[in-house]
Structure formats: C-alpha cells, structure tokens
Amino acid sequence: MKLSDKILEEKKEYEERFSLATERIRSIYKETQEKDCPVRKHGAAFGECFFYTASFLLQIADFLEQKEKKKLSEYSLEELKALNTTLYQDVLPANYEKSFSNPAYAKKTLGEEFSTVLCTLYTELRSNIAYAFENRLFYLTISFELFIEIYNILEQPNADAKEVKSAIYYYFFDYADLMAEDNLHDSFDPEYDFAADIICHCDLQDLRYLYYFGEYISENELKTAAYLNTLSEEEIHDMAFTFTDGFRRGFELYRIDLSKKRAVNIRYRLGMERLVRTIIEQFRELGLKPCIYRAGTSIRQRSPRGKIGYTGSSPNKQYDYDHRMDDAIFFDKAYADRRLQVQKQVLESIKDLCADFAGPAVIETFGEEPFNPIEKEEALQYSAKQQKWKVEFQAANGLLTNEYIPGDQTSFSIIAYPLPEIGTDYENIFAETIRVNTLNQTEYLDIQTKMIDALDQGEFVTITGRKKNKTKLTVSLTPIEQPEKETRFENCLADVNIPLGEVFTTPQLKGTEGILHVTKVFLNDLEYHDLSLTFKDGVVTDYNCSNFNTEEENKRYIRANVLYHHDTLPMGEFAIGTNTTAYAMGKKYNISHLLPILIAEKTGPHFAVGDTCFSHEEELTTYNPDGKKMIAKENDYSLLRHTDSQNAYFNCHTDITIPYDELGDICVHTKDGKVIPIIQDGRFVLPGTEQLNKEL
C-alpha cells in the first residue's frame, strides 16, 4: 500500500475519534486553568503540567487543521521558521530548565511519585510533531487518547502512579503490532515516500522545503542547503558518484548480485537534499529505489547508540540524553517477547520487501561542538533486570532481522561531510573533506598491501602510547597456515567505507590484553576524557574515564554508552589507519576532536569493542585485491552462532582511535622472535610506507 493511500485510509477510520479526542483536550485545557480542577488536588503543578501538555497537543491539532486549508508551500519562510521554533521551544536549552520534559524540574514540581510517568508521557507526546507533518492520524489519535486516559486517572483524589504507568505500558503493548508494521514498512518499502517526495519534487533553491519535514531546523541545515546550492552540477554529481559507486563496488567486493535488489535505505542529515536527490537518481540507474525514513521519535525507538534515519538538528542534546532510556518505564520480559512476536509476523508478511533490500547508504556529518552530558539521577535508568532483558531482546531481534535480511546478502556505503557549525573555514574544510574522500586508491593499495604482508608474518602485535597516552596492548592474531593464499587483514579502500585508509582484522581473543587509553575521544555524539579500557583474553575487564567527579558516575557512563549495558564486550576489531591526509586536515583546521569516527578511525590505530566487522557475514568468502582470502573473521563469540546463537552477537561495534600524536609504536612479533616495526614514535617506518609521513 502506498503511503498516500494509507493516510487516506487512516483519515476515514480515525477522523471522528481524533475530533472527539481533540474536543476533550480543549475542555481539559480550560479545566486546568480553574482553581477547582480535580488534578490540582495533587498539587498546583499538576494543573500546570496538564495545561501545558494540553496546550501543546492543541497546537498540533490546530496545525493539522491549518495544513488541511493551507499547504505548507503557501507559508512564507518567516512563518515556517516561527512555526518550527514554536513547536520545539519547550525543549530548547533556554526553556528546558523549567520544562516538564526535564526530569529534574518534573521531580522538583510534581514530586517523587508522579514526576517520572508524567515527564515520560509529555516526552512521548512530543512525537506528534512528526506524526502531524506526515498526516499519520492513527498515532495522533491514540496518543491524544492516552493523554485523556491519564488525565482521567489523575482526576481521582486517590490516583496511583502505578495506574498511570500501567496505561503507558498497555499503550505500547497493545499497539505493538501496528507500530511494528509501520516501522518495518518505513524501513523497507519505497512506497512509504514522505521524505523522498520532498527531496525529489521540491524546489531545493527555495529553503522553505527544509521545514516540510517536521524536524528541528537550525542554522546548520539552512547553511548546508544554501552552500550545496552554490556548487556546480558536476561537483554534486561527483560527490554522489563517490558514494553510490562505493555502494556498488561493495557488492562486487563481497560477490553479491546487486541486480536482485530493488531498494536502498538512505540515511542523512537535513540540508543535504541537493546531494541526496542526485544520489537517488544514481541509485535508480542501479535499479534501486530509495527508502528514507525518519530517525525514531517515539521513546520505543530511542537508543543510546544515536539516531538512525534522517534527522534535523537536535533542539537540545541534554534533552535527548535525559530521555534515552525512557522505555525503562514499561520495558519488561513480556513486552520484549511481544515485540519479537509481532516483529516476526510483520517480517514474514513483507519477506519479499526484505529480499529486495540492498542495505543502508549513510551520509554522516561532523562539526558540532562535542557534547558532555550532565548525569541526572532523576532521569530514567534501566534496572539490572531490564538491562538483561534489553540485551537479550537486542540479540534476539538481531538474529530475527538477519533471518529475513541476511548480512551476507546486503552491503552498505558510508561517507561524511562537515556542518557549517565547524567554523569560518567551513567551505575550505568541505573542499578538503572531498579530497580526503577521493584519494588515489592505487597508491594506497600498494602501501597497505606491504603493511599487510608484514602483519601476516606475526603471531601478535604490540601497541604503545606516548606523551600522556598510557596505552600498552598486545593483540593476538589468528593463526595463518597458507600465507601465500591467505591473509588476516582486510585491505580497506574507498568502497563501502569512505574514505579509504585502513587495514583491519578480527583479533584472536586469547592472548589479547593490556590497556587501551585515549586522552580525549568523541563516540556516538558523546565526549570522553581519559577513556581507559582494560582487556584480558580479549574482553573488557575494567573501564574508567574522568568526565565526572566520581568513579561510579564514570563507570555508569561507559557501561551505558560504550558497553551498552553488557557486563563486558570483546575486542571485535584491530586496525591501523593510514589516511594521514585526514589527520593533517584535522590538525590544520584544529578540528581533530570534531572528526567523526568514520574519518577518525583512519587517522591512527583503532580498536572496536563489540561485534567483529564481519558480524552475520562470517560465511561470506572475501578476498583482498591481491587475491588472498580473508580468514580472520571469527572470534570465540561469533563462533557460538552454531551452538548458542543468542550469545553470539552483541549488536554493537564502537571504534576507539589513538591519534598519531598520542601513538608510540606498533610492532609485529613473529613466531621466531623477530620484531617488525610498522610505526615508531607515531611515524611509519616499514619500508614502502614512509610516504604516508609526508602529511604528518
């Protein structure tokens, strides 16, 4: 079913219910201003909370009505800017301290018992901004009804927070099947074309189009779109081709038949539409239609791992951080089982769409100031049981997804560009990034082959830091029996993972040990100071950083945002980055700390905690350009897929890079005791690789 048909169907089915709900909320809006309003018996702040929430929902309803009478294209740029600010004003930093969406303020004003549930409710209701722009009347209706249900509970003088929590629980539990159906169609069905329609049919020179998505629009989106409009058609074409051809070559590299695929998911930051439109055109020439879905707005879709899909700016990163675990209010084993059950049913119903899916094509951005969050004790956190259930759910969901969309039958492509927030050198940095993304592959192929030949002689590799870096690691390598035909390191050029510039392997866990340390690093939109991970037999045994005042806070921060609530994670990857051009760019413009991991991982050795780079693709035979077969795809955990699949994968992979200026030596140690230096004091010394030092 086309999205437009679904919208019409929902309009017929839910229009009356939505109208009734809206009228009831109008009466609540009036009631909450009266002194004898029943909810005020719990405290004056309760009336204020419901008043502001009702006001927001009526704003959504009024916008929907206005949109029926007047198309968004008839609004002026100033009107659209004002509307965008109004919709998001309550969570903007200037207003957040006294917003009921702020867990600390909610607790201060509403008290211990009800603050968490009402704060979570208000946050979930803010998803209606997206639903209103997409005309999804089903979600608008059921969320309006949820608000009314909870208001009715609080009208009772003996109201219990458990009743409110139960209402939220069954909202997600009862509608899990319909929510799963929409989520999966958004992900894999090109007919769900809300974003693609804007990208392909709007006048992109007229920046009003940015406000048609319903995301928060900052100067980053406006200035990015304006800058891309100054580039020539040839420049846009070449940028797009670097990306789409990398995606195509990924299928060649992994020997997967691209002609059998029909859809590709494009993920990006708003403002890049002129580039994305050309990418869509080039993908269509490859036989692929775009699936472009919004990053999750509902609390059921949020993740500490960041936003997946298209997105605008965050109106407030602290708000996002405070609410990243809001599903803790309802997440339990029964809900997890329900999610898996309906997910299975929907995947089965769309298995043809799943078979058509080629994979994700991701455009990342960088340049925003690193975010160092405030940890609030009032914000929801998973309990120990919930952490266990969450990890089990993610593992089972990963296996289920791989059943219908096998990892060895898809590929991907990923690239990154700077945002205007990076500073006055934005245009120069953008041009330099294009250069970094299009370096000479033949030159790097020769250098990286020499490096791999040396690495394949070793039993293990040692890595040390220098200056303030305390790294001292031993990485054990997979045994190799036929070095003339086999290799342990993949030679990574500019195909799926752009820019080029690394050789990587899956470490052997036994014998991999020591300390990995970086003085400052930016991972998944969060900043870390003095991040330290200790490994024994390839798994993390201890961890710390210096972000917060206490060791407990620092460990909790890492456990939630690096380990993703696992008790431990293995080292899933060891790599040596060779893109000294990217490193030099970072130093030249003083933006090293702003580079995304996609580029940063190429600017020194990096180590990933979590799954290997070959997660769910272990059976896929791959070769380096020199014809050698890649054999180091497994570790002790991924091998469990044959006997204990639930514990084979962690569904996360976080790269941590040591920059060249903190790096001491990287040496290969052979079976007969020979030591082959690759890098000494942060400089390449292996014969045939010295030219990489020119940029350093």
Provide a quick synopsis of the model.
This protein is α+β, with helices and mostly antiparallel strands. It is built from 23 helices and 19 strands. The model has no long low-confidence stretch (mean pLDDT about 95).
How would you explain this protein's 3D organization?
The chain is 43% helix and 17% strand. With 696 residues, it is α+β, with helices and mostly antiparallel strands. It folds into 3 domains: 3-171, no CATH class; 187-414, 3-Layer(aba) Sandwich (Thermophilic metalloprotease-like), CATH 3.40.1830; 441-519 and 569-695, no CATH class. A hairpin with a 2-residue loop joins strand 11 and strand 12. The chain is globular. The termini are far apart.
